[in-house]
């Protein structure tokens, strides 16, 4: 009489697979769905927390290998899907009910490539299959419309609902849509809060896995307003390798930590130079500074983006490098950083304690 | 990443008439008198971002100010809407625990952990 395959035996076999980011086995994480056992035929789905999972294929192969070793199992069908977990919060229902994770991109100082990184991160996440929005909160120098090549502004319906234009698979809203060229605006705290509320509450974001927010440089009112208006999943800090830039990045990190907004990690931009001809890497600024700073500050290092004319020209042309030259090492660097961001987000969302009960 | 139980609330409820009670996961209970909690708001309008100076004028806050609504913010804080219309303050759990006004905590306040 052949061995009868049980669900428990299959789950036990799958318990041997550990998620490298969450440090727990995939069964206790609840990733296994839709298990069917029909004689010796076993099928199930592994539901990942990020579409960007770098270990997808590995999980699938390991799952098949472990389960086939169970006596009586003839065939194993492993399907892979992903479902981005929402940030653990209830307040979000007020302003942006469909948005699961709000991810501000910040830097202590200007010109480090925050907008370029935000745009490419958003495109990378969208390419990985996530639903993504990009909010340009840089009211002083909104540059997202240019970088993303947006030519049409938002549509306003019913006098107040704002439909964001979508470009490169990303829904986009920018202060640039609402300002006349070169118009100087002096924003004070309450106006900022007002604007942020509007960008959140009046914009039809729909259902989003990630809303990437390009913040203005520095550590001022807008960072505070944002943290105090909506729950943030965690901030991505962009820095160049130079000492000064890292010192200010440290300030940005300190601000988020003071506000109790988790920091997802640091991306080092304009990190090193890759010679177009020979492919050799040249650490003009002494790269790796941000990596060391990440260790010192005890925040994850999310990746380094080389300094490359192509990254700048593609941004100037409104076609992020991920689309204009997807096979280039530059596009791969952004993709890799985006995978790490997605992984850190699922870590944040899975690691929380049970939500607090409020009966006030 | 184990959450520190002393900084993780289990339940937030009403105490007395309008005061806020927090039961922490380590078993401790804190009761915050409504008005002193309103005066302890750390939002940008109430405290200067860099100098840390208090900008709020206590005489402008009504004697009987009370929370109307409390909502969670992420996993780290609550947002309180006050009867005087103020609602921009976010109270982080870390800070709330350090602020516990009970006699035990007053004389041996828990240390603020470095992040
Ligand atoms: N990795 C890179 N390689 C080459 N050029 C880059 C890179 N990243 C950004 N740049 C260029 O550097 C300039 C500044 O970048 P960007 O506008 O993204 O910075 P920012 O931090 O958003 O600046 P601001 O503080 O003005 O908002 C742009 O011309 C951009 O094209
Ligand atoms: Mg910018
Ligand atoms: Zn306040
Ligand atoms: Zn106490």
Rg from Cα of chain B: 14 Å
Order of helices and strands of chain A: HEEEEHEHEHEHEEEEHEHEHEEHEHHHE
Decide which structural class fits the backbone of chain B. Answer: alpha+beta
At the third CATH level, what is the topology name of the largest domain in chain A? Rossmann fold
Q: Estimate percent helicity of chain B.
A: 10-25%
Largest interface: A-B, 33 and 34 residues
User: Class of the largest domain in chain A, according to the CATH hierarchy?
Assistant: Alpha Beta
Domain module tally of chain A: 2
Care to describe what's here?
The complex is a heterodimer of chains A (360) and B (115). With 360 residues, chain A is of the alpha/beta class. Chain A folds into two domains: 7-82, GMP Synthetase, Chain A, domain 3; 90-350, Rossmann fold (3-Layer(aba) Sandwich). Chain A is 35% helix and 23% strand. Chain A has twelve helices and 17 strands. Chain A has helices at residues 7-14, 56-68, 92-95, 114-127, 144-148, 189-201, 221-229, 243-258, 289-297, 309-316, 321-324, 329-350; strands spanning 18-19, 24-25, 32-38, 41-48, 75-82, 102-106, 132-136, 155-157, 161-163, 166-167, 170-174, 210-214, 235-239, 263-274, 281-282, 301-307, 357-359. In chain A, the strands form four sheets. In chain A, strands 6, 7, 10, 11, 12, 13, 14, 15 and 16 form a nine-stranded mixed β-sheet that branches. The longest helix of chain A has 22 residues, at 329-350. The mean pLDDT of chain A is 83. In chain B, a hairpin with a 3-residue loop joins strand 4 (67-73) and strand 5 (77-82). With 115 residues, chain B is α+β, with helices and mostly antiparallel strands. Chain B starts with 8 loop residues before the first strand and ends in an 8-residue tail after the last helix. Chain B has a single domain (5-106), classed as 2-Layer Sandwich (NE0471 N-terminal domain-like). Helix content of chain B is 15%, strand content 29%. The mean pLDDT of chain B is 81. Chain B has helices at residues 34-39, 93-98, 103-107, and strands spanning 9-15, 19-24, 29-32, 67-73, 77-82, 90-92. Chain B is globular and about 35 Å long. At the A-B interface, helix 7 and strand 17 of A face strand 1, strand 4 and strand 5 of B. Bound molecules: adenosine-5'-triphosphate, magnesium ion (MG) and zinc ion (2 copies). Residues 28, 30, 100, 102, 104-105 of chain B line the site of one zinc ion.
């Amino acid at each position: 009489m052949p061995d009868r395959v049980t669900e428990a035996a299959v789950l036990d076999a799958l318990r041997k697979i550990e998620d490298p980011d969450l440090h727990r086995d995939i069964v206790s994480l609840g990733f296994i769905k839709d298990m069917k056992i029909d004689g010796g035929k076993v099928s199930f789905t592994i539901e990942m927390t990020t579409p960007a999972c770098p270990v997808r294929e590995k999980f699938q192969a390991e799952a098949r290998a472990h389960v086939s070793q169970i006596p009586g199992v003839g065939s194993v069908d492993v399907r892979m899907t992903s479902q981005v977990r929402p940030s653990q919060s209830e307040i979000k229902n007020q302003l942006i009910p469909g948005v699961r994770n709000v991810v501000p991109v910040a830097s202590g100082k200007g010109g480090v490539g925050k907008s370029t990184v935000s745009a490419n991160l958003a495109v990378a996440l969208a390419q990985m299959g996530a639903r993504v929005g990009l909010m340009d909160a840089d009211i002083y120098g909104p540059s997202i419309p240019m970088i993303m090549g947006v030519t049409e502004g938002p549509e306003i319906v019913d006098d107040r609902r704002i439909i964001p234009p979508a470009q490169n698979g990303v829904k986009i809203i920018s202060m640039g849509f609402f300002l006349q060229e070169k118009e100087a605006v002096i924003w004070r705290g309450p106006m900022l809060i007002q604007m942020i509320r509007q960008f959140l509450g009046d914009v039809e974001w729909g259902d989003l896995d990630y809303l990437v927010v390009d913040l203005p440089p520095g550590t001022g009112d807008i960072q505070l307003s944002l943290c105090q208006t909506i729950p943030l999943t965690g901030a991505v800090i962009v820095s160049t390798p130079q000492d000064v830039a890292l010192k200010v990045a440290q300030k940005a990190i300190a601000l988020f930590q003071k506000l109790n907004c988790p920091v997802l990690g640091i991306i080092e931009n304009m990190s090193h130079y890759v010679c177009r001809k020979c492919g050799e890497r040249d650490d003009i600024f002494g790269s790796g500074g941000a990596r060391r700073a990440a260790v010192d500050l005890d925040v994850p290092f999310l990746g380094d983006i080389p300094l490359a004319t192509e990254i700048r020209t593609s941004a100037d042309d409104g076609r992020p490098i991920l689309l204009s030259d997807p096979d280039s090492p530059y596009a791969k660097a952004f993709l890799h950083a985006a995978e790490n961001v997605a992984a850190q987000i699922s870590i944040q969302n899975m690691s929380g304690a049970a939500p607090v009960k409020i009966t006030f | 990443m184990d959450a520190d139980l002393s900084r993780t609330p289990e339940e937030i409820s009403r105490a007395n008439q309008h005061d806020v009670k927090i039961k922490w996961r380590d078993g401790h209970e804190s009761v915050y008198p409504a008005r002193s909690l309103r005066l302890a708001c750390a939002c940008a309008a109430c405290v200067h971002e860099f100098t840390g100076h208090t900008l709020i004028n206590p005489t402008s806050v009504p004697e009987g100010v009370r929370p109307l609504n409390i909502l969670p913010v992420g996993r780290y804080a609550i947002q309180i809407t006050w009867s005087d219309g103020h609602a921009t303050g976010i109270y982080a759990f870390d800070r709330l625990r350090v602020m516990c006004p009970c006699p035990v905590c007053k004389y041996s306040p828990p240390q603020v952990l470095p992040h």
